Amino acid sequence: QLLLDPAGISHDEMYLGATRLADIPESETEYYCPECSLGSSVFPGEGSLVPGPYGQWYQEALDAHGGWVSSAPQLMHMLAAVFEPHCNGTISGQNNGTCLLWDTSINQLTEKPSISSIYDQ
Description:
Blueprint: H1 4-7, E1 14-16, E2 38-40, E3 49-51, E4 68-70, H2 72-82, H3 103-110
Antiparallel strand pairs: 1-4, 2-3
């Protein structure tokens, strides 16, 4: 709600990914991977072998760093909202005065990093 709603993004079109095939929404594309090996599930009590994309890792643990599923248009909408130029409290009037990132944060994300520590010695 704090991220998607202010950017005007539908919760049906951008959401956290799920591990098990049974847990993904009907609208999400399934992996087709005939070469994928079967392996043990990371879920306790599931004794059967599972395809790599559906249980050999825990997708839900990736929520903070890339475990999101999105349509391409919604992803572009999010990027446009995040990098709205000169965000001084509003995003083009879409979100009742809430900024996703302030100018100072965007500057920190996009500035050339300083690598002066061990390389300058």
